[in-house]
Amino acid sequence: MNKIITISREFGSGGRELGRRLSEELGIAYYDQEIITEISKRTSLSEQYVQAIAEKRPSFSFPIHIHHSFYPGINPVFEHSLSVYKEQTNIIKEAAEKSDCVIVGRCADYILKEYKPLRFFIYADMDSKMKRCREKAPEGEHFTDRELKQHIKGIDKGRAQYYEFYTDHSWGDRLNYDFCINTTQVVIKEIVPVIAKLC
């Protein structure tokens, strides 16, 4: 069986960078945005749209009939969300079967539970997450501290709801992972060689 490493992470914790550097250190494949690109190809949905719904819990729509009976309405976003998750599951399993790899996010730890992946959860305190976000912010992005904090909390809340919807487990619960790593005030590239020895 291939060596599979999954990285779940809080926004701004450096989890994505850690995953990429770890794959380089170990000389194995790395999957992150590539999954979104492949989902887009398989579903004919744009990458931007797939990205927008890929880490959000599907929303339901139950309109009320004029005679006060309830019926489930056709909700294209809900259908797309389920379709994206289905393709995501297929792609992640294909990647795991193809070669040793690191997979970031997207419920990979749960999807690949039968493959016995090494599961990491990366987290940090808010000040460290805000600092990383400011360092990596695209040009022209100017959040106030309050806005940035709310942005980070909002993304993490969305990730938690998404994970819990599809897995029925709590995102970030230490019992769901093999290693939980606090990257507060840590230089990611300096800890990767140490983490690689655990793999």
Q: What's the shape?
A: globular
N/C terminus separation: 14 Å
Radius of gyration of CA atoms, rounded to a whole number: 18 Å
Number of helices: 8
Describe the structure.
- This protein has helices spanning 15-26, 33-43, 47-53, 76-98, 108-111, 126-136, 145-167, 188-196, and strands spanning 4-9, 29-31, 101-104, 118-123, 179-182.
- It is of the alpha/beta class and 199 residues long.
Summarize the structure.
Helices cover 50% and strands 12% of the residues. By secondary structure, the protein is α/β, with parallel strands linked by helices.
List the keywords.
5-stranded parallel sheet; single chain; 199 residues; 8 helices; alpha/beta; P-loop_NTPase; Cytidylate kinase-like family protein; transferase; 5 strands; kinase activity
Give the arrangement of secondary structure elements.
Layout: E1 4-9, H1 15-26, E2 29-31, H2 33-43, H3 47-53, H4 76-98, E3 101-104, H5 108-111, E4 118-123, H6 126-136, H7 145-167, E5 179-182, H8 188-196
Parallel strand pairs: 1-3, 1-4, 2-3, 4-5
Helix pairs in contact: 1-8, 2-4, 6-7
